[in-house]
Structure formats: structure tokens, C-alpha cells
Amino acid sequence: MTDSQTDRSPRVPPSEHPSWVIENCAIATMDDDVEYTSGHLVVGGNRLLAVGPGPAPERYRSAAARVLDATGQLATPGLVNTHHHFYQWLTRGLAQDSHLFDWLVELYPTWARIDAPMLGAAARASLAMMARGGVTTAFDHHYVFPAGAGDLLGAEIEAARELGVRLTAARGSMDLGASDGGLPPDFAVESTEAALRATEEAVAAHHDPAPDAMLRIAVAPCSPFSVTTELMRESAALARRLGVRLHTHGSETAEESAFCRERFGMGPTEYFEETGWLGEDVWMAHCVHMTDADIAAFARTGTGVAHCPSSNARLAAGIARVPELLAAGVPVGLGVDGTASNEAGELRTELRNALLVQRLGPSRERALSARQALRLGTLGGAEVLGRREELGSLEAGKLADVVLWRLDGLGHSTIEDPVAALVLGPPAPVALSLVNGVPVVEDDTLLTADEAAVAAEARAQARRLAARAAG
Ligand SMILES: [Zn+2]
Questions:
Q1: What is the pLDDT of residues 307-363, one digit of tens each?
Q2: CA-based torsion, 337, 343, 349, 352: positive or negative
Q3: Do 290 and 415 belong together in one domain?
Q4: Of 293, 433, 455, 458, which has fewest CB within 10 angstroms of its CB?
């Protein structure tokens, strides 16, 4: 993108009336690594009309509803979260010293008591926390559907609508209870038929295939150790029949690999291949314990990965082979994961954590650069959610999901490189976050919800859940 390109149009067409002109900020476009030390962005409706160096062309400035001097700020694409479990906001700080399987076994009985008001409160808190930290597209994987819990998916969808955050909501499922050799207790799982029926209904009720959709639905059975082979196969077939994406957890821990070898006689990636779960329409959370052959299979099939460094550290899962995944051409995004395994619940801090965790691995200082970390959190995320064409980079024609980070305070002072300041420095305050062209955060303050009220409601619902679990 250059000024000469943006200047080609002789006038602003009436349908592209600029609503925001943002100037004097550094810009990391994530479009072919193009960066501007000082540049401009023009937003019209829900789209970016222009991105380039220097001040905005005068025809935009004079027509804009708002002209913003963003001196001292860095503009990036909005952050895209690719893995989360909103409901876990109600069970943070528990099972503090457990690995994945022990942690799950301790928490499942509480999770199985969740209802719609609880999930609504947890979703508002999770989304508010991420939005105030620069997330513009969220993803939620909900897979606990106790009988009589009410409209759980509807509750989180309503929360995202209130908060103004773009959402992919996965209708998850579990149908392999402990009595059949699975990890969750029997009372936490559904029947295979009920799970498939409800998943199809969720897509019919909520999925919006439009390029500027604020809401998409994905199909997401939980994991090889909580889902039958039949549900894995049928879910893949259902998603392809309906034209929606597929998501699950994969290769998270050594214990999961051992489970797959014992139960299926093969590793997790071979099992996924066997059940129709490798493909361009699939992304998987974690992918920590991957062999060279597993990585090659992901690359060959275009299967994406949601890398969740804090959660992997918290549950002692290991270090995902991100440098090898990227070198092989595997699409990789970043994930907060549920806040029972990443209590911070933020994606902006995952940029830094991804870089630091990767440098503790075998690739050391060559593992991941600050710019690669930012790419994972933006364009990489858009790619694994199947939205690379419209999200993830700042380019004219793409959706106006933009974040301005304030880098002129004490925390970032003396770091000349704005991308290094954002990724390596302390969490940067959000000066402005636009989702679909609409401001959601301004001056480090969430505009779409009262944070104190969201926190109070989450506390009350967490107490209700704990009391139910104890009773
Ligand atoms: Zn997860």
C-alpha cells in the first residue's frame, strides 16, 4: 500500500464516506511486513478505505466525521484470539499445581453445574478483559452442556453482541464419559445424537457466512479423550455439509498421546487423519507434542494451530514447536485458552509470552521475533479462523478492526521500535479499538460495558456455581 495507490481515486465516493481519519501514528500493517514510522488510516463504515505513510489525503480529512491525531501511538490490526473457554472465568485459580488430566478431573464436576446466566456473566467478563486489551475478534469453545442448563450458546452470543466484539462461537461437545473409558464424569457428557443435533441447530440459528460477519459458528467436539470416534467422524461430516469450520484440542500433553496410543493404537495426529480431521477447514488448539511427520501432515493438509503459550506453561504441557510449524508453512494463531488455565485472560500479553516461551525451547534466540509474535496474534489468527481475506492486516478494503496502542508513557519510554515496545514491553494501554468500524475501547476504557458491573456479576455467578458444586 502506498500513497500513490490511495490517491488514485479522484474523489471520495458517497458510499465510502470516511468516518475516521487517524494520523501521525506508527503503523504495523501486517501486510507483507509493510510498516510506516508515521502514517494514516482512513475508515469508512466498517471498512478501511486507505492506509499509507504521512498525513491522510486532504479529501479524506475534509470529509471525515472524526480526525484523530494519534501521535505516540502504534496502529495494528485488532488482535484475533483463536482458542478460549469463556465459562472458565468462574473457576479461576483452582487446581493450581496440576497437569492437564488431574486439573480436568478436579474441575469437571463443577463445570457440569453451569447454566445460562453463569455462562452469560463469564462470557461478558472474558470478552471485556480481552477487548480492553486489544482483541477485536474472539473465539469461544464451549463443550459442557448439562441437561436443563438453558440456552448456553445464546447467552455467550448475546454477551459478544453487547460488548461489540466479533465472535466465532464453537458448539462443542463431549460424549465419552468415564464409564466408557473417557476422562469426564458421565453426568458431564451428552449422547452422540443429542450433540450432533444441537450442533446442527446452532449453525442454522446463528452462523453468518457474510464476509463482514460479526458472528460465525464452528463445530468443535472437545478432545480425543472426551469424545467418541463416531462423534469425531460425524462432526467432521456435519461441518463439511454445512460449510463451517472445525476445531478441537490436539496433541496437548504427553498423557494425551499415551491415551491415543493405548485406545486407538496410534498417535493423535494419525487419529485425526483417520477420522477426517486434517484439512484447510480445521484448526487445533495446542499441538505441543508433534513429531516431524505430524508437522508435515498439518502442512500438507493446511490444518491450522492455536498456540496457547501461557496455558501450556500453567499446565506443564510443554513447548509447542512453533518455529518448525511456521517453517513448514502451517497456519498458526495465538490463543488465551480458558482462564482456569490462564488466569490473566489477555491476548496482548500472549504476544510477549509466546516469544519468551519459544526462546526457552531448542531454537533459542531464533525461535520467534517480535514481528512474528505480532503476526501470530493478528494475521495468523485471521488465517486459522478462515478470515484472512477480510481480517488480520491493515489494508484498504479489509474490515475496520483496528487498535491504536499508546506507547508514549513510562512503560514504553526509550524503546524506539514500536513493535518491540508493544511485544516486549509491559501491556500497552489501548487508545482506541475499532471493531467493524465502531469504537469499543477509547482512552483505555471499555465503552460497551461497565467493568465494575461485569466483575460484580461474574463474582456473584462464580459463587452460585461454587455453591451448586458443593451442594
Ligand atoms: Zn482449551
A1: 999 999 999 999 999 999 999 999 999 999 999 999 999 999 999 999 999 999 999
A2: negative
A3: no
A4: 293
